[in-house]
Write a structure and sequence with these properties.
Helix content is 37%, strand content 23%. The protein has 259 residues and is of the alpha/beta class. The strands form two sheets. Strands 6-7-8-3-9-10 form a six-stranded mixed β-sheet, with helices on both faces. The termini are far apart. 39% of the residues are buried. The structure holds adenosine-5'-triphosphate. Pfam families: ABC_tran.
Length: 259
């Protein structure tokens, strides 16, 4: 389908458009005039040393923080002032650095609750007629994150890596169009990192994501585009190979504390 010319002008073809987004904390600009566009289905890595503004960027996109100034559009709609739940309803998801899982429930129960929560906009422990559909959806998500053999395990008994995989399944509940992954490889073993790369690269093509990741190997393998941040600003954007070979980026980031 051909989009209207004005639609292109307004950025309707993009999953996400940030225009001059600034977020102040007192006198500190955690984000400073950040403009960024992500196409539907695009996989983007956001790199940058500690304090570069990556998490603040995610918080502004999700609505956990409102920007001090600037505009955020999600699939063409101005969501700048929307609360987080309204963005979830439109297909935006995120994972956090800290786990938000129900530790005493099984893998399957966690994913099922996520599916129910997203479908009704709240968590409920009472069954409904749609439950069989949601249970089937949950099974598929458990499989997509390679947890089928652990599906009846209590979350507290999972390895750290399995818990991170489960968080991805939770983010996939409903009909996500864009997922923000916040350091999904943190604390994973090399084998678990391989598994993570396989999971992320096997996601359905229409689901885009932005990944904050300190593990360059993981980030550059799963992403098709890279944004490097520094001091709350966008320092560089490009394809993984360009960014990897960029001398200024190497000096700033790859050769630094996180490289
Ligand atoms: N809630 C807050 N209150 C005050 N300052 C904050 C807050 N959140 C972030 N900052 C500051 O904003 C700047 C950017 O922080 P942010 O967490 O976005 O960086 P980051 O790139 O995600 O870093 P890291 O890799 O360490 O997570 C930092 O100087 C940080 O101290």
């Amino acid at each position: 389908m051909q989009a209207e010319p004005e639609a292109f002008a307004r950025g309707l073809e993009n999953a996400l458009d940030l225009e001059m987004v600034t977020r102040m904390f007192g006198a500190l600009a955690a984000l400073s005039n950040v403009s960024l566009s992500v196409r539907p289905g695009e996989r983007r890595a956001v790199l940058g040393s500690n304090g570069a503004g990556k998490t603040t960027l995610f918080n502004c996109i999700t609505g956990d923080f409102l920007p001090t100034s600037g505009t955020i559009r999600f699939f063409g709609e101005d969501v700048t002032e929307f609360p987080p739940q309204e963005r979830v309803r439109r297909g935006l998801r995120r994972t956090y650095q800290t786990s938000l899982l129900f530790k005493k429930l099984t893998v399957r129960e966690n994913v099922h609750l996520a599916c129910r929560g997203v479908s009704r906009q709240r968590f409920s422990f009472f069954p409904s007629r749609r439950d069989d559909v949601l249970i089937a959806a949950a099974e598929k998500l458990v499989e997509a994150v390679h947890l089928t053999s652990a599906k009846d395990k209590i979350v507290a008994d999972l390895s750290h890596g399995q818990q991170r995989q489960l968080e991805i399944a939770m983010a996939l509940a409903g009909a996500p169009r864009l997922i923000l992954f916040d350091e999904p490889a943190a604390g994973l073993s090399p084998a678990e990192r391989q598994d993570l790369v396989a999971i992320l690269t096997s996601l359905p093509a229409h689901i885009g994501f932005i990944i904050i990741e300190h593990d360059m190997d993981v980030a550059l393998r799963v992403a098709e585009s890279v944004t490097v941040m520094h001091d709350g600003r966008i320092f560089k954007e490009g394809a993984p190979r360009e960014i990897e070979a960029d001398e200024e980026v190497q000096e700033l980031y790859l050769g630094g504390e996180d490289g």
